[in-house]
Design a protein that fits this description.
By secondary structure, this protein is an all-alpha fold. 64% of the residues lie in helices and 1% in strands. The chain is elongated, with a radius of gyration of 27 Å.
């Protein structure tokens, strides 16, 4: 059943449509037939082997499964099955793997692990090679990608928005009937990346996979002795965390803590790969995280000294939010070489907070006008909001929206940091409407976070990922997206700078080292 987006009740129109589109003449679905064919060695005498052989792949196997292929050869004497089995024996001798080949899934899983562990920047060329090859194979309709739900979903997630998703990836594969939680989790992660209004397939996948994962998670919690601790933690986190609110350092630290060095998956039997759950990745990730964190700690100490040296700590009206301001910078701009960008971001964020407090609490009209001369656009908009509040007047929607983005005071934080993230910005790029549009979207997301966050966030992500016709460097566009994620963390549950979750996030990124047990 496809659950309703607003309740646990079935989403009946979608259920009926899907059943009508996928049900075969005998009342079964294609996925169910595929599942029965996949376990042929267990019910060989009941099988229609002519139907089973429809699932034979180009390499001669059935589902890349040696056991299923061996059963098929025993009953059909198919020459391609025999050739596949002989290649296996030539390569592995008597130790035949559960699944072969597994290289495409293993390579994609390796890329996904490198990204989640925060060490992908050390392997950019290797990752680009895997992504380019996967994109080429996707366009060719390669069966090694499209015949396995987990591989298909992972490839889509890493390639999106370059490719479109097909729901046949899971529903018409045997994976749906094996209750493969790993495959469903990959589909759920992929279904979170919705940036176009016409991606209804992803919305349906999100409804279905979230319902499936919640049920499986309940079963895992009831049976604590099953070998599913790591996957249960991953499922729980994925269900609770919106895609647009996952900050880099927090996600990385969590991934390191819960990284599973045992890459075994259990379907009809267990299998694993040396490239999945590699201990060397974990050791490198811990070392890299702790090195970055030591740099972040020194920078944060410098920020605190800077506040004291400039007597900003003496301003009675100003909140002392150095930790949160630095967190907003280091959460995603974490590499050591981006120190200048972090310090620019953090200092301007702190100054923006001081100015905001000045307007809210202690600013006279004369002082406001003088300050406006230094921070033109930002403070002009703040003055307008201050006037509305002082006069107890209610602006029209047009007046409010025209002023809202600028008054949120992200300009002094983000715009100076653009010059420190890597690409050299020309006057053409700085004055381009695309850059202004990115800034407007980001600011509007912040100001209207609780009202229209879904639409604006999706539009911001679309513009950030857009490559065709874009003149703004990707590193600069990522800066706008990173701050949008920071704002979701700040305002997701609490009111900005308050709450235990915020202090916990500060400690995770700046304070607590990772120690392997």
């Amino acid at each position: 059943m496809v659950p309703s987006p607003n309740s646990q009740d079935p989403f009946f129109p979608e259920c009926v449509n899907w059943l009508l589109c996928n049900q075969l003449h005998d009342g079964n679905s294609e996925g169910w037939r595929a599942f029965l064919a996949y376990i042929s060695e267990g019910n060989a005498e009941l099988q229609d082997w002519q139907t089973v052989m429809k699932y034979q792949r180009k390499n001669g196997s059935l589902f890349n499964s040696p056991s299923t292929t061996a059963a098929a050869f025993t009953h059909t004497k198919n020459a391609d099955c025999l050739q596949y089995l002989r290649r296996l024996l030539d390569k592995f001798g008597n130790a035949v793997p559960t699944i072969y080949p597994l290289d495409k899934y293993a390579r994609l899983s390796m890329v996904s692990s490198l990204e989640s562990l925060g060490i992908d920047r050390h392997f950019r060329d290797e990752i680009r090679s895997v992504i380019d090859e996967t994109y080429r194979l996707w366009l060719q309709g390669d069966e090694e990608i499209f015949s396995d739900a987990a591989t298909c979903a992972m490839a889509f997630r890493l390639l999106h928005p370059l490719v479109k998703f097909s729901e046949d990836c899971f529903f018409n594969s045997y994976g749906g009937y094996l209750k493969d939680v790993s495959a469903a989790l990959e589909l759920f992660k992929a279904s979170k990346i919705i940036i176009h209004p016409d991606e209804s397939i992803l919305e349906k996948q999100n409804y279905w996979t979230s319902h499936f994962l919640k049920e499986e998670l309940s079963n895992m919690l009831i049976q604590p002795h099953r070998p599913n601790k790591h996957i249960a933690l991953e499922v729980d986190h994925a269900l609770k965390s919106p895609y647009h609110a996952n900050l880099g350092r927090l996600s990385t630290k969590r991934a390191i803590k819960h990284y599973n060095t045992d890459g075994t998956r259990i379907l009809k039997s267990s299998y694993s790969s040396l490239n999945i759950g590699h201990e060397d990745f974990l050791e490198l990730a811990v070392e890299d995280y702790n090195i970055c964190q030591s740099i972040h700690r020194k920078e944060f100490n410098h920020l605190e000294r800077w506040v004291v040296e400039h007597r900003l700590d003496k301003l009675k009206f100003a909140r002392q939010k150095q930790a949160y301001c630095y967190l907003s910078a280091a959460a995603d701009l974490f590499p050591p070489e981006l120190s200048d960008a972090r310090m620019s971001w953090a200092k301007n964020a702190f100054l923006t907070t001081v100015v905001d407090d000045f307007f809210d609490i202690d600013g006279s009209e004369e002082e406001l006008i003088n300050l406006i001369q230094m921070w033109l656009d930002c403070l002009n908009s703040m003055l307008k909001e201050a006037e509305w509040s002082r006069n107890k007047s209610v602006p029209t929607m047009d007046e409010y929206m025209a002023n809202a983005g600028t008054s949120f005071a992200l300009g002094p934080i983000v715009l100076p940091a653009l010059y420190f993230v890597g690409p050299k910005l020309s006057e053409e790029v700085v004055g381009n409407s695309e850059l202004q549009y990115l800034f407007t979207l980001m600011s509007t997301c912040g100001r209207l976070l609780n009202d229209v966050q879904s639409f604006k966030t999706r539009e911001l992500l679309r513009v950030v990922l857009l490559e065709k016709g874009s003149v703004v460097p990707r590193a600069c566009k990522d800066l706008f997206w990173n701050l949008n994620k920071v704002m979701h963390l700040f305002y997701w549950k609490d009111d900005g700078y308050v709450g235990n979750e915020m202090m916990k996030a500060v400690n995770e990124v700046i304070g607590e080292l990772i120690v392997l047990q």
